[in-house]
Amino acid sequence: MPYEALFYNGPTFKEYRKTLSGESEIQQLDLLLEFMDTNLEKINQEYERNVPHGKVTGAIAWTLFPPEEVIRLMNGVLNVSCSRFEWNGTSFGNVSKTIAFKPPVVPGSFPITSLSAFPLRYHPQYEKLKTRLIARCHRYTKIVKRSHMCYNGTALTRDPLDLEVASVHLNERVMIDYAEFVRQDPEIAPQLETDPGVDIAEDVEYEKCWCSNPDCKVAGRKKSPTEDARSTGENAPSEKVQDPEHDAAITITDDEAFLCPGNIKWNQEAYSRLEMNDEYKHVIRALVEAHRKHPKPDSEEFDDIIAGKGLGLVFQLQGDPGLGKTLTAESVAEQASKPLYAVTSGELGTTVNTMESALKKAFRIAKTWDAILLLDEADVFLSKRSADNLEKNALVSVFLRLMECYQGIMFPTTNRAEDFDPAFMSRIHLTLDYRPLTPERRVKIWRNLSAKMAKDETLDEGGLQQLATDYDINGREIKNLLRTAWCLAKDNRRPLTMADIRAVARISSRYSGTSRV
């Protein structure tokens, strides 16, 4: 459409004329205004006849979209060049996009809000919607840089084999780290138009650019923008928005709150409820706290001769499955208010190249997130080297070399401690040996888990002690047994009882010999 730049700027030119004093300047501007009145007369008449009343015709639908107009897009043939604010992992900036949509093919005028894309200021609940969007924007800019949050909602995941995208429901803690996301898949990073390093907190204002030529040199020049009566008006969104934390009127809908990540509530009781020798727990807590406060020793007496080596904290957790090795790492993370980044040996691969690359990635992520690293089932990387297995020797050597330079807190777990390489043992700060459960320790686990899982039910102490004596099972099996019994009770719509627990134990071959169906 010709003359769109003149149409959008008509009110601005008329206001600007009032400020002029030079005769020559006034004459030049009057010629422009006369030209505009002649060539835009029909458009102006149709605009004034419809748009102030919330209506528009197909012929003048383009007049609703001056530069910097905030629009509400429903679905997508009118081409609208838009820009959206994006984060590329390191900085914020604008990303351009052209949206195509087709105005309704109907005679006469129709409501502006019936368009699949229309200016947000015409929305019937504009002020409420604007307030919610501003609050959501502030929340986004606060968490996107790197945040450890709780999330309860839908997430999209991509199958690494067929690259199909599927939706899953998550109700767990997540790490929001777009920089790492882009690092692993650089092609998805948005190409920002603004200069790198511009931060949203700077509140940079840009001059409105009314030119339809995208290569115009004045576009984007920093300046306090001039208000346009047609594009802003009384209900237009403000150029600057207030932080919602200082605006008590801002609210978020239930649906938005459901999808928004929430702050983590650390379970400080988890560590105290951990079934472990109190002396061990005291030493672990002291070491973790000292490393957290002083990741680099103040005295050079405790530093390695080679800078950057030996600054990590390594706890070796060894013992049979189900005795609390993983729970120990999880409880320490809760106590220290740190993320827990868990990696299994299967994720690291079995060849030297894949293992080295995967382990470097795990160490880098754990360091970036200031996370406690749980390396589960690490036997293959820690076993003794031998003259007849060069491939395994290479795996162990690479692991030892990288581990020595790791500066974070790490918990490698294993079921076989007797086969560890001596070089690894010399790099351990504390070894915890998990012995089989005694009836006394087992009853504590029954008590803790039942109190947490069945909050409204009361299981008598004598019954719990009898369960600990009757069933020689580990902590994970106790948890599974309790969960199954709890589900059985809920299905019958009654509180959990000892009868439910023993009923599940009777039909499970793990607890009572052989199950018969």
Short description:
This protein is an alpha/beta fold and 517 residues long.
Could you please describe the fold and organization of this structure?
The protein is built from 19 helices and 13 strands. α15 crosses α16 and α15 runs parallel beside α17. It is elongated, with a radius of gyration of 33 Å. The protein has a 5-stranded parallel sheet with strand order 10-11-12-9-13, sandwiched between helices. A hairpin with a 6-residue loop joins β7 (147-158) and β8. The protein has helices at 4-17, 23-39, 41-50, 126-143, 178-184, 254-259, 269-272, 278-293, 325-336, 345-348, 352-368, 379-382, 390-405, 422-425, 439-453, 461-470, 475-491, 498-507, 509-512; strands spanning 55-56, 71-73, 78-87, 92-101, 110-111, 117-119, 147-158, 165-176, 313-319, 340-344, 372-376, 409-414, 430-434. It folds into 3 domains: 4-259, no CATH class; 269-434, Rossmann fold (3-Layer(aba) Sandwich); 439-512, Orthogonal Bundle (Helicase, Ruva Protein, domain 3). The protein has 517 residues and is an alpha/beta fold. The chain is 40% helix and 16% strand.
* Ends distance: 78 Å
Count all strands and give the number.
Answer: 13
Give the strand line-up of the largest sheet.
10-11-12-9-13
Helix coverage percent of residues?
25-40%
Major sheet characteristics = 5 strands, parallel
Low-confidence stretches: 196-259, 513-517
Chain-averaged pLDDT: 78
Gyration radius, rounded: 33 Å
Structural class: alpha/beta
Q: What is the count of distinct domains?
A: 3
Strand content: 15-25%
Q: How many helical elements?
A: 19
Characterize the overall form: elongated
